[in-house]
C-alpha cells in the first residue's frame, strides 16, 4: 500500500523498517471524488499530501474573479499551500481534485512528530521545497521570456500526461492564454504529425 511513497522518500534518504513504519503510521489516507475542493482561499492549510492516485490543481482568483491555475499535481507528487501550512496563516489559493484522488496526508502535528522522531526527514522536505521552487522559477522565466506557443510546447514536453488528463481551459489558464489558442495549437501540432 505504501510502496510508492516509500520509493518517493528513499530518493532522498534511507529508512530502516522501523522508520518506515513510524512514517506510514503517521499518514492518513484519504480519498476524494473529482471536483473536491481540499483548500479554499482564506482557510488555513492543514495538510501536506502525497498523491497516490489522481490529479489536482492549485489556483487563485484574479481581480475579476477568474481562476488562474498555478500548478498541476499528479501521482508521486506532493501538494500543499506551503506558506499557509508552515505559518498557519490563511491560504491565498485553492486546491481541487480534477480526478478521483487518493492522497496520503500529514497534518502540522503529525509532521512535527515525524521530524522529531526521524530528524533526517528534514532533508526530504527541504528537497521537496527546493524542487518546488525550481519548478516555479522555471515557470516564471518561461512566462516572461517565451511566446505562448513555446510555453505550450514546453508544457507538453515537461508534463505530457497532464495535457491528456485535464481540460483545455485549465491548461489555458495555466499558460495565460485562451482555450481557443490551446485548441488551435493542438490542431496545428496534430496536423504536423500526420
Explain briefly what this protein structure is.
This protein is an alpha+beta fold. It contains nine helices and eight strands.
Write the layout of secondary structure elements.
Layout: H1 3-9, H2 17-26, E1 28-32, E2 37-39, E3 48-53, E4 55-61, E5 67-74, E6 78-79, H3 82-87, E7 94-97, E8 101-106, H4 108-117, H5 121-145, H6 148-158, H7 160-165, H8 168-175, H9 179-193
Antiparallel strand pairs: 1-8, 2-7, 3-6, 3-8, 4-5, 4-7
Helix pairs in contact: 8-9
Domain Cyclic nucleotide-binding: 30-115
Pfam family, one: cNMP_binding
Protein name: Crp/Fnr family transcriptional regulator
**Total beta strands:** 8
- The CATH level-2 architecture of the domain at 2-117 is identified as Sandwich
The CATH fourth-level homologous superfamily of the domain at 2-117: Jelly Rolls
Using the CA coordinates, give the radius of gyration: 18 Å
Name a few traits of the molecule:
alpha+beta, Jelly Rolls, four-stranded antiparallel sheet, globular
Describe this structure in words.
With 194 residues, the protein is an alpha+beta fold. The chain has a domain at 2-117: Jelly Rolls. It has nine helices and eight strands. It has helices at 3-9, 17-26, 82-87, 108-117, 121-145, 148-158, 160-165, 168-175, 179-193; strands spanning 28-32, 37-39, 48-53, 55-61, 67-74, 78-79, 94-97, 101-106. The chain has a four-stranded antiparallel β-sheet with strand order 1-8-3-6. The protein has a four-stranded antiparallel β-sheet with strand order 2-7-4-5. The model has no long low-confidence stretch (mean pLDDT 94).
Amino acid at each position: 500500500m505504501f510502496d510508492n511513497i516509500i520509493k518517493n522518500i528513499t530518493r532522498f534518504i534511507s529508512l530502516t523498517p522501523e522508520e518506515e513504519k513510524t512514517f506510514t503510521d503517521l499518514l492518513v489516507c484519504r480519498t476524494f471524488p473529482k471536483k473536491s475542493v481540499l483548500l479554499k482561499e482564506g482557510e488555513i492549510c492543514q495538510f501536506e499530501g502525497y498523491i497516490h492516485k489522481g490529479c489536482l490543481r492549485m489556483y487563485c482568483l484574479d481581480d475579476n474573479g477568474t481562476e488562474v491555475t498555478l500548478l498541476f499535481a499528479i501521482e508521486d507528487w506532493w501538494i500543499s499551500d506551503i506558506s499557509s501550512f508552515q505559518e498557519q496563516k490563511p491560504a491565498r489559493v485553492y486546491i481541487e481534485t480534477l480526478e478521483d484522488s487518493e492522497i496520503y496526508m500529514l497534518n502540522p502535528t503529525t509532521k512535527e512528530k515525524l521530524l522529531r522522531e526521524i530528524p533526517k526527514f528534514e532533508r526530504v522536505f527541504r528537497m521537496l521545497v527546493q524542487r518546488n521552487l525550481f519548478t516555479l522559477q522555471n515557470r516564471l522565466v518561461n512566462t516572461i521570456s517565451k511566446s505562448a506557443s513555446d510555453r505550450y510546447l514546453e508544457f507538453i514536453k515537461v508534463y505530457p500526461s497532464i495535457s491528456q488528463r485535464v481540460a483545455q481551459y485549465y491548461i489555458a489558464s495555466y499558460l495565460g492564454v485562451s482555450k481557443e489558442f490551446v485548441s488551435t495549437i493542438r490542431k496545428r501540432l496534430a496536423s504536423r504529425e500526420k
